[in-house]
Amino acid sequence: PPPSAVKAIMAVAPESSGLTTRPRLVGLVDRLAKQHGVSPKLAHALIQVESNYEPRAVSSKGAMGLMQLMAATARQYGVENPFDPLQNLAAGMQHLRGLLDRYGKGRESLALAAYNAGEATVSRYGGIPPFRETQNYVRRILSLTGR
What is the pTM (predicted TM-score) of this model? Predict the structure, then answer.
C-alpha cells in the first residue's frame, strides 16, 4: 500500500489488543501456533526473521506487522488492521498452515519459500526459487528451528 495508506492504518489503534510487549507476544504466538497446528518453534523463527517481533514493521515492499502480511493476504483473511498483533498473527498462522498443507509433510522449505516469494513463484520454478533473498530466508528460518 502507499505510505499514506500505511499511516492511516497505523493510526487505527495499532496496539489495540494490548499485546505489544515481547512476553505477551511470545505467549500469543505459542497459543495461535498450536491452535493452527503450526510448530511454535517454526512460528517464532518466521516472526524473528520477518519483523523481529515489531508489530509496526513495514517492509520496503509493503508487507506489514509481525508476520509481514501483504495487503492482499491481509484482505484474504479478513484483517482490518495488519498492525494489530492478534489480527496479524491469526491471519499469518492461517496462511502458513495453508502453505504447509499445500506442500506436504517434510517440505517446510517449500512452504517458507512460498511465504516469502509467493506460491506462484514456487510453482514457476518447481521448488525454491533461485533468488538469494528467498534462499537465505528459508535457510535462516530453518537454522533458527535447529534444522
Answer: 0.86
